[in-house]
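Input (structure):
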């Protein structure tokens, strides 16, 4: 099992792409290279590092990206709290009009669609920011592993079992960060109950979920097209 020197003190402070952070990532990679030779050597046969501990630097990058994405989510929900409250209130009206009274109201539904579109546009801005954090984190990981690979290649043992190719295989990047799938289903964030537990069979569907379904299935034209793509 690899023993990575330095511990938490050598974890990255932030996953921000820049000259200093890229240089730091390469430095971490060179320092950790000696402990990573056997792990990297497995890449020649396509072995994945499943079950092996990731270096503290890699774990730190992953944690920083996750925290950054969480901050963007919090910023969206707190900054657009009034809009979310309006959507919930209007959802009740839409459901009452369509489901309880059975009287379609295209103008009211169009107004509701515009409010939902405002939410989706605001959420998309934060989703793009979250994706940028993920991409930056993965670029830092690439700098780290490239540096570790080059140092390992120069200092590799004579034993062929641990011989490394001159360059890291492009697809071999342990610890890669991925955007949380919930960022592709932004309308789900309007249903706060679904964040904590799966809704039971006997529980009623919240008005916001019903109203979004009505918007998706009954509003024609541009707004309807937006509705079909909003739950990404």
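Output (sequence):
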């Amino acid at each position: 099992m690899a023993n990575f020197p330095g511990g938490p003190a050598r974890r990255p402070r932030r996953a921000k792409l820049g000259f200093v952070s890229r240089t730091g990532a390469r430095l971490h990679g060179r320092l950790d290279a000696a402990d990573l030779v056997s792990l990297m050597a497995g890449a020649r046969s396509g072995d994945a590092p499943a079950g092996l501990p990731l270096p503290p630097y890699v774990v730190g990058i992953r944690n920083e990206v996750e925290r950054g994405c969480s901050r963007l989510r919090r910023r969206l929900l707190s900054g657009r709290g009034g809009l979310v409250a309006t959507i919930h209130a209007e959802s009740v009206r839409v459901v009452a009009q369509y489901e309880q009274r059975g009287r379609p109201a295209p103008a009211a539904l169009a107004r509701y669609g515009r409010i939902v579109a405002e939410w989706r546009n605001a959420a998309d801005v934060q989703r793009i920011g979250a994706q940028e954090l993920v991409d930056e984190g993965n670029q830092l990981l690439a700098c780290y592993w490239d540096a570790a690979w080059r140092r390992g290649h120069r200092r590799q043992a004579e034993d062929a079992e641990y011989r490394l190719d001159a360059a890291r295989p492009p697809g071999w990047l342990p610890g890669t960060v991925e955007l949380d799938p919930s960022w592709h289903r932004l309308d789900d964030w309007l249903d706060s109950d679904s964040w904590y537990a799966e809704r039971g069979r006997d529980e009623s569907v919240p008005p916001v979920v019903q109203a979004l379904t009505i918007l998706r299935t009954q509003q024609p034209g541009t707004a309807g097209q937006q509705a079909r793509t909003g739950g990404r």
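Notes: Residues 216 and 227 are 5 Å apart (CA to CA). The chain has a mean pLDDT of 80.
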